[in-house]
Each structure stands twice: as C-alpha cells, then as structure tokens.
Recover the amino acids of this structure.
C-alpha cells in the first residue's frame, strides 16, 4: 500500500515572455525546433516531493508564492519548464472557481462535461446523478445557465462532481473558502471520510486550522521555492511565526518612521493621595493629572479610564468626548486634569489608565497605569454605587 | 468524451436561435442560389465536356465539400483560443477540441449535403447513388486533410494571432483558384496545368465524377489522396502534440 502517487523531481516553471508579437514569434519557432528558451519570469524553482497513497499534503505560502502554478503543473494544465513529474492512479483536481464551466450552459450540461473530463462515462453520470445533485444541493438552479450562479453555487457543483469520482489523488486549490459555512463543513466531512477510506489529498489553503486538521505533511512555498517541507505542524507553525514576525517588523517600521511624530504621556498622577499611599475612602475626591506631549503643536486627546484590578472596565472618558481643550503647559507639553468628586467606587482594588491619542482621537499612542485602592465599609455589591433611594 | 464535446459544439451554434436547424439547410441553399445565379445566369458559366447536368447541380456537389472544408479550417484554427478558459483550468487532451470543432462542422454540412443531393436528384439529373461509398471515401480523405491543416493552424494561432485575420482571405483565394464555380477549361492554358498542384482540384473532380459519371471503384487517385491527407494529418498532429504543452503559457 506504500505506492507513490505523485513524485516531483526538481520541477521548475518559467513563464516565457509573451508581451509583444516578436517574442511570440521567436517562442513559436524555438518551441517548434525544440530549442530551450531564455528570459521570462521564473515562478517555480527546484520543487521536489513525493506523495504516497494515503498521505496528505498541504501547500501553504503567501499570495504569488507559486502555489496555484504548482498545482497547474502537477495536474498537467501547464508543462513544467524543468524537472520531471511522475504520477500513478487517478487524479481529480478542483483548481479554480468555475473551472471548466461554460457560463452559457445549464448546470446539468456543465456537470456532464466536467464528469467526462474526470473520466466518467455518461452511464456513470446517469447512475451518480442523484448523489451529485444531492451533494451540490442547489435545487432547481441546476437547470439554469451557470452564468446566473453565485460563486458559492459554482463551487458546490464543482465539488459535487469531483466528490462523485473519488479519485486516488484529489487536488484542490483554495476554492472551498467560497462555500458557505454548512457547505464547507459538508466538504470537510467528505474529505475526512475520503481520507479515512485511504484517499490522498493535495490542497492549497490559507486556513491553517483546516490544513492541520486534514493533512499530515506540508510544503511552504516562498517566491517559487520550497522554503520548508515536512510535518504539517512544524511547517505551519514556522509559517505562522514568519507571518507574525513580518507583521511585527512592519509595525516596527511604521513606528520608526513615526517616532518623531508621536503623541505621548510623560506623567500620570493621582491627586488626593496622601504620602504616596494611594488609598481613597469612598466618597472622597479623586483627581487625575495627565502630562502629555505633542510633537507638532497640536493638542493630543487625553483618555482616562478606570478599571478593576482584574482589568474589568468601569468607566472611561476622553477629553474629546466632552469638547474639552487641554491646556498647554510649556512648549510641546500639555496638562489634562480630571476630577471625580464624590468617588462612587465600591471598596476594592482599581487602576487608573491614562492614554494619549492623536488629535483626531483615532489612535492610542501611549498608555500609563496607576493602581489605587478604595477603602470603606460597605456591603453593597458590584463596583459602583449608583444613586438610589428606597421608596416607602 | 469526444461525443459530448461534439454535441456541445453543435448545440452552441444553435443556442439562442429559434430556428437553428432550419438555418442549417436554408443558409447553404441561399448561398447556392446566389452562386448559381451570378455564375450560371449572369456569367453564363457552362459545365465542362462530359457532364450532361445543369450548371447549378454541377456547382452544388462541389460547393458543399468546400464549405465544410473551409469553415472547418476556420473553426479548427480558433478552437484552442476559443476554449482558452477551459484549457487553463482543466487538464484534458487538447486535440479533442480540434477534433470536435471539425467534426461538428462536417456533420452539419453532411446534413446540408444530403438535402442538396436530394434536390439535385429531384430537379436536375439522376445521381448515381451507388457511387455514394466512393464519394464518402473521398470526403473522409478531405476530412483527414482538414484535420491535419486544422491542427497546424490551431497550434500556430495560439502563438500568432495573425492566423485568424489571414485565414479567411487565404481561403477565399483558394476557393477561386479551385475549379468549383468554373470549369478548368475556362482557365488560360498556362494556369490549367497548374491546377493539379492544388489538392482541392482533385477532390472536387473526384466527387463530380463519382456522383455524375458513376465512378464507384477506388483507384490510384483515391489512394494517393488518402496518402497525401494522411501525411498532412500526421504532420499536423505531430506539430500540435509538440506545441500543445506550451499553449497555456501563450493564451
């Protein structure tokens, strides 16, 4: 049962230059006389791997990494420029949305043609028609031309046909993502069932959860080369980590370019605190002082929030909400003062958070936090005493 | 699979037209009427010695195979480009597209041809129906020739779109250089000798001889036509197979 279904050896693909007519004529003669060409854009380089029967592999990678081209080369839609591909067993591929569907024809006609491409005889199709229609579940639309279909319906029909074939090797590009939740689940269930019965899958997906669930091996393509391949968890984790690092680098770069124009906080003080001990009695006055700075002479927006010690937000307010202008202290520095008279917080641990926002109040640039404790004797429940009266 | 493609090809030509099947017969008949009027009545073209048939019937039996041939070539040439969307997404033997295009054209024209032959029988002259197998063999050879040329044109057109523009003009020239609407004897002496280098001359003459004079037995001429057509077919197919893996790069 350890049969190799697919084997790629140092496969490479270069798209020839086809922009102007002269290049096309040269390419024509070159191909006709079997000479190797030069130039063009290289999209795949030295890809080698094997898929054994029953082993599933996922291809991951960013947009433009060459995933779809790789699948096209494997399925034979494209001829590889270098290297060899050997295949055994039956293969069915779901490459692109609406692959092989003619929009002018009805779903049923297209279904039959597609089934023929996959090697089903008309008698087979007749026998499996009910199953296929039930799987696709698009009702009477099957008699409508495909041009009236939604993309989800097209995928349903395409997948239903492929599913009816049950090939030795199933190849899918990122098409399932188009289907709705219930259809995706149905497809995943079908694939799991198919894999359980010894089927083999080669899939492209950006959904790492799906990849880890369905495949045991993974190939990470990066700029047309195999950046990593092996166990699915190793590869996908490295892939995700790489993306996180890149995001972080992007953010870092953005911060660096903006470092000279940052709004920030230099100080957060609580007034009323005695001897550095930040305890308040219920009903006392809490005064928050924020010192902010601005690089461009425009007053930043100050945001003050109170949270419970466990992080539960209690209240927050921004200077902008209430149309308050922050006063300027000296060049580049601003002071915001906020006073809570008659502190209504119930006893417990709290923190004040101060944030500096840009003048538009869109982005938080800086954050500071000071903890404080509210003391008192109260058996009331919750976080805040609301004004109330008992009626008699 | 080929059957499905042919069916599809035929249906795609009539999809959306109410009376598609009628046009199939009416268009060629109108075409024939125009040619018969212009060349038979205005130019007073005459059938060559040895044929005791009206001009229009003499024209008709050769015109149909030519129509099938030239339309077949044009459709075959465009068959790959026409199905570019399919080729770039589904892996299947591409030669089927050329086959299905050409087969559908020949099938449709065969129906028209039968109608024409019946008209000739009823209104003009007796046709030697027993020579039909021979005629069929000649047309089959023509089909083979068209396939070979179709493969060449289809694979060339993927790379050089000019084929699409050039082909109708070339076919028009070919039409007038073939004794379809005129008798070879009407040509100047010098050119008459050159006519045998035009393969289509052989085909139209064989068909006329079969249907009107009653040539029934295969001979060396048929054999050489079949061999010639086979060579063209083999060459076209080889060229197509050689180039077809690269089609998608250029579509």
């Amino acid at each position: 049962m350890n049969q190799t279904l697919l084997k790629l050896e140092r496969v490479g693909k270069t798209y020839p230059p086809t922009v102007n007519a002269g290049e096309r004529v040269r390419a024509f003669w070159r191909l006709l006389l079997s000479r190797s060409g030069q130039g063009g854009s290289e999209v795949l380089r030295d890809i080698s791997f094997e898929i054994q029967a029953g082993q599933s592999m996922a291809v991951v990678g960013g947009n433009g990494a060459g995933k779809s081209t790789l699948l096209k080369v494997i399925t034979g839609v494209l001829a590889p420029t270098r290297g060899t591909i050997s295949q055994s067993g039956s293969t069915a591929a779901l490459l692109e949305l609406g692959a092989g569907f003619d929009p002018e024809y009805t779903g049923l006609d297209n279904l039959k043609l597609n089934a023929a491409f996959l090697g089903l005889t008309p008698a087979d199709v007749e026998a499996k028609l009910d199953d296929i229609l039930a799987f696709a579940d698009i009702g009477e639309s099957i008699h409508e031309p495909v041009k009236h279909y939604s993309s989800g319906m097209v995928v349903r029909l395409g997948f239903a046909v492929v599913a009816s074939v049950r090939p030795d090797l199933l190849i899918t590009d990122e098409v399932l993502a188009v289907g709705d939740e219930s259809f995706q689940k149905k497809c995943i269930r079908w694939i799991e069932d198919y894999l359980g019965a010894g089927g083999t899958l080669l899939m492209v997906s950006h959904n790492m959860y799906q990849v880890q669930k369905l495949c045991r091996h993974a190939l990470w393509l990066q700029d047309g080369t195999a950046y990593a391949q092996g166990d699915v968890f190793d590869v996908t984790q490295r892939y995700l980590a790489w993306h996180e690092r890149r995001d972080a680098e992007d953010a870092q770069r953005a911060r660096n370019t903006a470092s000279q124009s940052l709004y920030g906080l230099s100080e957060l003080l609580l007034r009323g605190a005695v001897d550095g001990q930040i305890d308040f009695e219920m009903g006392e006055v809490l005064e928050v002082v924020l010192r902010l700075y601005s690089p461009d002479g425009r007053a930043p927006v100050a945001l003050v929030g109170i949270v419970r010690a466990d992080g539960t937000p209690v209240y927050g307010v921004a200077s902008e909400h209430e149309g308050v202008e922050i006063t300027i202290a000296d060049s580049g520095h601003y002071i915001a003062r906020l006073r809570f008279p008659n502190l209504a917080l119930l006893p417990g641990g709290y923190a004040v958070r101060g944030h500096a926002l840009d003048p538009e109040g869109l982005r938080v640039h800086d954050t500071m936090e000071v903890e404080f404790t509210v003391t008192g004797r109260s058996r009331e429940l919750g976080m805040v005493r609301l004004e109330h009266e008992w009626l008699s | 699979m080929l059957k499905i493609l042919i069916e599809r090809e035929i249906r795609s030509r009539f999809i959306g037209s109410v009376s598609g099947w009628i046009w199939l017969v009416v268009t060629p008949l109108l075409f024939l009427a125009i040619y018969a009027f212009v060349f038979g009545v205005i130019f007073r073209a005459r059938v060559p010695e040895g044929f005791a048939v009206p001009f229009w019937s003499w024209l008709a039996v050769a015109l149909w195979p030519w129509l099938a041939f030239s339309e077949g070539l044009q459709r075959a040439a465009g068959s790959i480009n026409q199905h570019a969307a399919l080729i770039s997404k589904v892996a299947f033997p591409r030669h089927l597209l050329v086959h299905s295009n050409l087969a559908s054209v020949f099938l449709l024209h065969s129906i028209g041809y039968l109608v024409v032959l019946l008209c000739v029988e009823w209104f003009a002259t007796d046709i030697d129906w027993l020579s039909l197998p021979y005629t069929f063999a000649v047309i089959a050879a023509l089909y083979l020739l068209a396939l070979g040329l179709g493969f060449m044109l289809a694979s060339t057109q993927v790379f050089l779109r000019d084929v699409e523009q050039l082909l109708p003009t070339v076919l028009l020239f070919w039409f007038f250089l073939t004794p379809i609407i005129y008798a070879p004897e009407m040509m100047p002496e010098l050119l008459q000798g050159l006519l045998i280098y035009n393969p289509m001359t052989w085909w139209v003459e064989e068909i006329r001889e079969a249907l009107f004079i009653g040539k029934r037995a295969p001979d060396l001429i048929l054999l050489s036509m079949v061999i010639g057509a086979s060579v063209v077919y083999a060459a076209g197919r080889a060229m197509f197979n050689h180039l077809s893996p690269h089609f998608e790069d250029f579509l």
User: Anything to note?
Assistant: The mean pLDDT of chain B is 85. Chain B touches chain A through 24 residues (CB under 8 Å). The two ends of chain B are 23 Å apart (CA to CA).
